[in-house]
Write a structure and sequence with these properties.
Layout: H1 22-25, H2 38-46, H3 54-59, H4 62-72, H5 80-87, H6 94-109, H7 115-123, H8 128-140, H9 145-156, H10 161-170, H11 172-177, H12 179-186, H13 195-203, H14 216-220, H15 226-229, H16 238-252, H17 256-269, H18 273-282, H19 284-289
């Protein structure tokens, strides 16, 4: 089996040069890219601060950031493997560019004895984009599904929304390849105290999802995912509620009667506002299809 870098080690992350612009951390994101202050752009490209909105994410100079992050975690920023990747980024859509950067950094670690330390430095980096690259490393390994989920846990609980999205996408193909095992492994996640972890259990198993491969087994038989959804049917977190509702809305495209039945049952069992919100959003596509709706 392929040797994979360990993303949870006790070594300390390597701090970016000049890290600690505390006055920038509580900022509100600019409404347009053109309005982002130069100081913020510089700190983002240096890997010293996380993004706070999509505009900042899109404003990053990926070549600068990748080279800075590589140096900060102990890799050669001038390595041919990385330079080749950075030179062809314009040929790919924005999200795919990050996948290629992550793969280049991953490949650079393979001959390194300190591979685990580099992985940990990337996984704990101040830049949310760098941590997203670390999350993507999990997709490149041949680890079994259970090990991939253990590795992705830290990213599923990350304080940054972008890293959390990358976390479930990193294991999406592995989940699709063994749905029943994934549902069994994710059941404890659905009752975890952290709402981010609970939301991951739902979002990672959505039959359709967003910007990712569909899970054909759950489109055809969504009831196989019910052990993950049931504990979330009255979740107090709106973040989780929206994910569960979207899960069922996905399923309604192929199994509308099953979704109606589940929603009716949940309302009978849990008539509170949380469940009412979930089932209302879960059936929005079904209402749209009704004559006169």
């Amino acid at each position: 089996m392929e040797s994979a870098p360990t993303l949870a080690t006790s070594c300390a992350a390597l701090p970016p040069e000049g890290a600690g612009p505390q006055h920038l951390l509580g900022r509100k994101g600019a409404a347009r890219i053109a309005l982002i202050p130069p100081e913020v752009i510089e700190a983002l490209n240096a890997g010293r601060i996380p993004t706070v909105n999509l505009n900042e994410f899109l404003a990053i100079d990926l070549r600068q950031l990748a080279r800075n992050v590589a140096r900060q975690v102990g890799l050669d920023p001038d390595a041919e493997r990385l330079e080749d990747t950075l030179g062809m980024l314009a040929a790919f859509p924005p999200v795919k560019r990050h996948l290629h950067v992550a793969r280049a950094l991953y490949d650079l670690t393979e001959p390194r004895a300190e591979r685990d330390a580099i992985a940990h430095a990337l996984a704990t980096h101040p830049s949310d984009v760098a941590r997203s690259w670390a999350a993507q490393w999990i997709a490149f390994t041949s680890m079994p599904l259970a090990d991939k989920l253990r590795s992705v846990f830290r990213f599923a609980a990350d304080p940054h929304f972008g890293v959390r999205e990358m976390a479930w996408m990193a294991v999406r193909d592995a989940i699709a390849g063994d749905v029943d095992a994934a549902v069994r492994l994710l059941q404890p996640w659905a009752t975890h105290p952290d709402a981010n972890i609970r939301r991951f259990a739902s979002e990672a198993t959505r039959p359709r999802g967003v910007w990712c491969a569909q899970i054909e087994a759950l489109k055809a038989q969504p009831w196989r995912g019910l052990p993950v959804l049931q504990p979330l049917r009255a979740d107090t977190s709106r973040y989780v509620q929206n994910s569960v509702a979207n899960w069922l809305n996905d399923a309604a495209r192929t199994q509308p009667d099953w979704v109606r039945e589940v929603c009716a049952q949940w309302l009978r069992q849990h008539g509170g506002p949380e469940t009412a919100y979930i089932v209302r959003r879960a059936q929005r596509s079904l209402r749209d299809e009704q004559p006169g709706a």
